[in-house]
């Protein structure tokens, strides 16, 4: 079954079209990258996908169900996880608490008032496993605010993994990463690839072409081409869009 | 560790000193301590949403006032409840106080919590003022002039007319309130409201309906404050709309911030310092609001994290 | 319903609405541009009344009293901005609320020390004490003056915000703070100016009401909440919203208090109407606020996202 199916999506802000008749599908297990110049409407797209904004017209189907007007928390419960472009962690909590909350989100209702959450092994152990997977286990007890930018980005991935999501929306996971951190992130994403369906929104072209199964190119809110990395590289319209910017 | 010692020391002092003063003929200090402990309960419950949940309610005095009127109005109508030989009006009044304030919290919370930030501050303030004007407009219950409670709540095994027993009830209630808040904030529910305080958008995209969690916390906090109000009505035996004036809400907030928001002991420390200061300053000058206001400004500007924060700086231990 | 009474109450509502606008416009301006919640805004309303009362008694003339009190109130606003508000701009709203709450206590007590605990009545000149006959309705001329002055102040404010360079900066500051700084405009002076403007408007409202209610300690404490209701309903930061909501709240409150029992009598017994009407009319504006927020959580005219 198609994981995500976006058809004819439109969204305007005061006359400016941020999303323009956008159509996109994600097949199970695929890593699908969306690239595009600055201001192409990538963030608006992801906001609509996760439900923080609603489109003016068009439809979003997730796992076969219409979710166009569904609230973010209900989409998340259906199995959609999102990482944020600007690091968006709960800074005054510990690293492990952040990830454990993601586990907790999947573990039934949280209207539970009595048992201390930090003593519930079924929340803490998966959280620690995810931290291990992204190489942050030794920092589990640190306050989140004390970690570096690269570590924050990896926490984002750990959180998305911890939700056991069917679909991960990764909003520029490479943003602001240089050298070693960037290489580590690519390796991390490669290790996840195949396990989960991933929509990757990314600026870093090297990373995108190294990781993606398919790439969609977004220009002024409209997808001008979709295809395998090689096809995209050879596409004239894409070259023009990018050359035009540079 | 240092923090635990402080908590035990403060609570032990509150357990021992006021009764000793009372028994040695200084009834005044017991009165002061009773007020302190009752306002402490209100501050502890405000802190649940303000300190841990990041919901800056500027209307919590309304819950205190409603709780007090829930004791005063049945007493005014001479409604006494008996069970066998016991007169047990308190067993009706106190649950009524809790239920009424919980309901008020639910109804106003449904609207307040749709908003964020400064809107929330102002709307909670406005709703509290609404209750204030409502009570003022009901002449039957004294309007502006307030209402004298002729008979305190009657409870089995307890005589609230005895100041020592009233203090005992208030003190134990404070312990329970602190225990409840400590339990809630450590629970899964507590993690969610603290997460929503830190980053609401993140929590929603994780799948938490933060509105529902916030609303629940708001109702719990309101009901606890209502309970404190029922105690306050029994203590003062005089209730008036002035109890829910917005400046009272401001004072509750100040207690929380002064003591240290987001800590279990902080609000109690804050209430203690507040009451003592109020007493000392007002005995020196009738214009005590002047130094008091200046101090409030200074605390906000210079003391981050309140007294608990200061304590952490001095004696170590995690904030 | 008596048409004369209705007209009078309508004008009273308009008068209340305009006074509310003068207070609320300053609040919404300061919040919209400085992102600063000023509980002590109403203390400036009170100070305006007292300063004007002093000048009026000294000079024996209310008009001179107002004209002198306006710049003095602006000056007080500047001092408050410099001493208390400025260190708080970078803080969160909780800190701002608490510190300005402390400021209210300080200003109230200071006013008590200066002017004494009793209120000060402000005498009006003879030509303002009279009545004006319009058709079948007789109106006190001073109330008409309040309405006129309120409308003029509102018009002046709209002109200032929409058609002047200062207004452009104010609007730019509201929507894009970094841009204003990037333009090389001294943002601190701009903030101070905006704050003083808000203070002056609140002070003017206090001056205009003083001859009716007299200047008294704590007179601002109920006004500030109503002003909050106004800017919440109007949309915090929106001048147009503040104007419309202020008139709406002023009219609803005044007319509700006068006529709600009559309206209730149409659908219930006289006795029930007379008991419930005062309670409901006391809550009316809050009920309206709740109703507005239930549908529009950011008020009727939410300012554009920053």
UniProtKB/TrEMBL annotation, chain A:
InterPro entries: AAA+_ATPase, ABC_AA/LPS_Transport, ABC_transporter-like_ATP-bd, BCA_ABC_TP_C, P-loop_NTPase. One of its GO terms (molecular function) is ATP hydrolysis activity. One of its GO terms (cellular component) is plasma membrane. Pfam families: ABC_tran, BCA_ABC_TP_C. Transmembrane segments: none annotated. Keywords: ATP-binding, Nucleotide-binding, Transport. It comes from the Bacteria. Residues 4-245 form the ABC transporter domain. This is Branched-chain amino acid ABC transporter substrate-binding protein. It comes from Marinibacterium profundimaris.
Automatic annotation (TrEMBL), chain B:
The chain crosses the membrane at residues 33-54, 61-80, 86-111, 118-135, 164-185, 211-232, 252-277, 289-315. InterPro entries: ABC_transp_permease (IPR001851), LivM-like (IPR043428). Its main location: membrane. The keyword Cell membrane applies. It is found in: Cell membrane. One of its GO terms (molecular function) is branched-chain amino acid transmembrane transporter activity. The keyword Transmembrane applies. GO terms for cellular component: plasma membrane. Keywords: Cell membrane, Membrane, Transmembrane, Transmembrane helix. CDD domains: TM_PBP1_LivM_like (cd06581). It is a multi-pass membrane protein. PANTHER family: ABC TRANSPORTER ATP-BINDING PROTEIN, HIGH-AFFINITY BRANCHED-CHAIN AMINO ACID TRANSPORT SYSTEM PERMEASE. This is ABC transporter permease.
């Amino acid at each position: 079954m198609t994981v995500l199916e976006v058809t004819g999506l439109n969204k305007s802000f005061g006359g400016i079209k941020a999303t323009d008749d956008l159509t996109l599908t994600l097949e199970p297990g695929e890593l699908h990258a969306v690239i595009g110049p600055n201001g192409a409407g990538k963030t608006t797209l992801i906001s609509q996908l996760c439900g923080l904004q609603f489109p003016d017209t068009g439809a979003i189907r997730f796992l076969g169900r219409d979710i166009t007007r569904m609230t973010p928390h209900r989409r998340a419960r259906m199995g959609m996880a999102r990482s944020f472009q600007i690091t968006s962690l709960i800074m005054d909590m510990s690293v492990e608490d952040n990830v454990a909350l993601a586990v907790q989100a999947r573990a039934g209702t949280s209207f539970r008032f009595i048992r201390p959450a930090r003593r519930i092994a079924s929340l803490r152990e998966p959280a620690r496993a995810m931290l291990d997977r992204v190489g942050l286990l030794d920092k589990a007890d640190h306050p989140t605010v004390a970690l570096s930018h690269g570590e924050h980005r990896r926490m984002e991935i750990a959180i998305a993994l911890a939700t056991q999501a069917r679909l991960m929306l990764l909003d520029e996971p490479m943003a602001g990463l240089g050298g070693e951190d960037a290489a580590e992130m690519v390796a991390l994403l490669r290790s996840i690839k195949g396990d989960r369906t991933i929509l990757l929104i990314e600026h870093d072209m090297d990373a995108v072409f190294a990781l993606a199964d398919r790439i969609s190119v977004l220009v002024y809110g409209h997808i001008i081409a979709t295809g395998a990395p090689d096809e995209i590289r050879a596409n004239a319209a894409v070259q023009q869009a990018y050359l035009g910017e540079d | 560790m240092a923090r635990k010692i402080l908590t035990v020391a403060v609570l032990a002092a509150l357990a021992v000193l006021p009764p000793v003063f009372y028994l040695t003929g200084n009834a005044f200090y017991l009165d002061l301590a009773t007020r302190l402990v009752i306002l402490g309960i209100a501050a502890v419950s405000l802190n649940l949403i303000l300190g841990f949940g990041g919901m800056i309610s500027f209307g919590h005095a309304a819950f205190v006032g409603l709780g007090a009127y829930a004791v005063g109005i049945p007493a005014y109508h001479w409604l006494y409840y008996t069970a066998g030989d016991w007169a047990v009006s308190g067993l009706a009044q106190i649950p009524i106080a809790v239920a009424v304030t919980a309901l008020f919290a639910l109804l106003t919370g449904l609207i307040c919590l749709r908003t964020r930030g400064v809107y929330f501050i102002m709307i909670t303030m406005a709703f509290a003022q609404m209750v204030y004007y409502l009570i003022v407009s009901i002449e039957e219950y004294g309007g502006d002039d307030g209402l004298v409670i002729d008979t305190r709540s009657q409870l089995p095994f307890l005589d609230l007319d005895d100041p020592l027993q009233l203090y005992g009830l208030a003190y134990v209630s404070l312990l329970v309130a602190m225990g409840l808040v400590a339990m809630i904030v450590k629970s899964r529910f507590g993690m969610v409201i603290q997460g929503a305080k830190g980053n609401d958008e993140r929590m929603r995209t994780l799948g938490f309906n933060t509105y529902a969690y916030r609303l629940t916390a708001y109702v719990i906090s309101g009901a606890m404050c209502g309970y404190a109000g029922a105690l306050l009505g029994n203590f003062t035996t005089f209730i008036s709309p002035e109890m829910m004036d917005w400046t009272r809400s401001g004072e509750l907030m100040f207690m929380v911030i002064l003591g240290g928001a987001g800590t279990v002991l902080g609000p109690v420390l804050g209430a203690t310092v507040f009451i003592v200061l109020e007493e000392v300053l007002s005995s020196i000058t009738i214009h005590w609001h002047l130094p008091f206001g200046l101090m409030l400004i200074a605390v906000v500007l210079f003391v981050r994290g309140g007294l608990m924060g200061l304590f952490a700086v001095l004696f170590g231990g995690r904030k | 319903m008596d048409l004369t009474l209705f007209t009078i109450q309508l004008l009273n509502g308009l008068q209340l609405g305009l006074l509310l606008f003068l207070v609320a416009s300053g609040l919404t301006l300061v919040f919209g541009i400085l992102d600063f919640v000023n509980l002590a805004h109403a203390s400036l309303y009170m100070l305006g009344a007292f300063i004007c009362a002093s000048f009026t008694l000294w000079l024996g003339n209310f008009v001179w009293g107002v004209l002198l009190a306006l710049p003095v109130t602006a000056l007080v606003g500047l001092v408050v901005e410099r001493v208390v508000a400025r260190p708080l701009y970078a803080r969160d709203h909780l800190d701002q609320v608490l510190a300005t709450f402390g400021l209210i206590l300080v200003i109230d007590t200071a006013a008590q020390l200066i002017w004494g605990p009793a209120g000060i009545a402000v005498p009006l000149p003879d030509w303002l004490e009279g009545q004006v006959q319009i058709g079948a309705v007789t109106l006190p001329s001073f109330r008409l003056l309040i309405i006129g002055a309120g409308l003029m102040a509102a018009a002046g404010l709209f002109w200032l915000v929409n058609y002047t360079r200062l207004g452009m900066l104010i609007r730019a500051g509201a929507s894009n703070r970094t841009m204003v700084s990037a333009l090389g405009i001294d943002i601190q002076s701009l903030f101070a100016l905006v704050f003083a403007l808000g203070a002056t408007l609140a002070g003017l409202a206090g001056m205009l009401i003083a001859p009716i209610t007299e200047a008294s300690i704590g007179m601002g404490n109920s006004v500030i909440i109503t002003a909050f209701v106004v800017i919440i309903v109007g949309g915090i930061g929106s001048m147009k919203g503040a104007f419309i909501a202020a008139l709406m709240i002023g009219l609803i409150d005044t007319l509700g208090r006068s006529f709600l029992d009559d309206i209730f009598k149409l659908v219930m017994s006289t006795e029930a109407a007379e008991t419930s009407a005062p309670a409901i009319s006391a809550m009316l504006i809050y009920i309206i606020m709740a109703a507005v927020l239930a549908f529009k959580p950011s008020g009727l005219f939410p300012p554009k996202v920053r």
